[in-house]
Amino acid sequence: MSEGSRLPLVSIIITSYNRAPWIDKAIQSSLAQDYANLEIIITDNCSTDNSDEVIRKYVADPRIRYSRNESNIGMLGNFKKGTNELAKGEYVLYVSSDDYLKDPGFISSAMDLFLNNPDMRLVFGKFATFNFHSGQDIQFYQSSLWDKRSWAGKDVFFQYPSNGFLCFGGCLFKRKDIIDFNVFEMRHVNFDVECILKIMLLGDVGFTDKEAYVFIRHGDNQSGSMNMEAQLNKLTYIEELYEFAGKQLGEAYGIRLLDWKDQILNNSIKGSLYFMKMHNSPIFKEFYSYIKKHYSRNYKMMARDLSWYTKIKISRKLLLFLYKKFKPSYYRQEFAGETQQITG
Predict the structure, then answer these.
(1) CA distances from 151 to 3, 116, 144, 148, 178 (A)
(2) DSSP letter, residue 9
(3) Which DSSP string corresponds to 20-64?
(4) Residues 59-87: pLDDT tens digits?
(5) Adjacent-strand bridge partners of 91
(6) How far apart are CA 191 and CA 154, in angstroms?
(7) Can you give the pLDDT at residue 330?
(8) For the chain, which end, N or C, has fewer CB atoms within 10 Å of the first or last residue's CB respectively?
(9) CA-based Rg of the chain, rounded to a whole angstrom?
(10) Contact between residue 75 and residue 46 where contact means Cβ atoms under 8 Å apart
(11) What percentage of the chain has pLDDT greater than the value 90?
């Protein structure tokens, strides 16, 4: 019996739609993983570019299983098909077709944590963002969570507001948890965060100490689409998470949970308002008015952060000028690729 046949099967799931320029690296980085019992599921959502031609270069590898949908079934539908119908692994790892895995040993390290701890439910690798337009990368794992290899899930849950750089990509799951939670039936913009926060309340969470996943920012990222409905949806998911956690943890955590909810709300609202101010002024004004009316208590708490409050109150034109003059590296990272001029 080979070493690989004695190990649990891990499914890497790559969902794709019109990612021909990017998917090569996603596939190559998946094939580079050194774990001995691996399958790579590629489910293409009826792309209209030459994705099929790019993907078919790899189908001779026995680890690759390729499926192309006859029609576009939507992003979440494609995730669900890959997970519930195509994947056979006990464990799953998701790689977006425009991102890639960096550490070839990530799955092996993560599976070592799973196999040595029956209560393990999630294992995170470190991750970074690479800005295609500026050529810069930012590491997002400056967090005390990586000081230990294993934590009780509820401790990670309560640290999330201050250590929120946890990503659906670069995280190894038990496939059964994804299916049982009907993750891809969650209709929230932040379904990925909702998923990991719920699952971590069921057991332990592991961390590997190498950079495992790279998220590529470019002008066509799915997460870049923001509107008022999406902003309200984000508030709804936080409220529902709060209710779920209350049922899981019980009354003894009531005050601590309320503080957790306020922190999550404040962080989410602050981030959304700042993003809207810099990238979508009409939605910023609408969302700002909504928050002042419906979340006035949280708004008062947020206003104590003078750095954030100043950025929200001064003009976009002035703020961009200050970034360009005093923080040129940040300016290039955040605003490279924009076609609009600094006009206010």
Answers:
(1) 29, 14, 11, 7, 20
(2) P
(3) TTTHHHHHHHHHT---SSEEEEEEE---SSSHHHHHHTTTTSTTE
(4) 999 999 999 999 999 999 999 999 999 99
(5) 10, 174
(6) 19
(7) 75
(8) N
(9) 21
(10) no
(11) 73
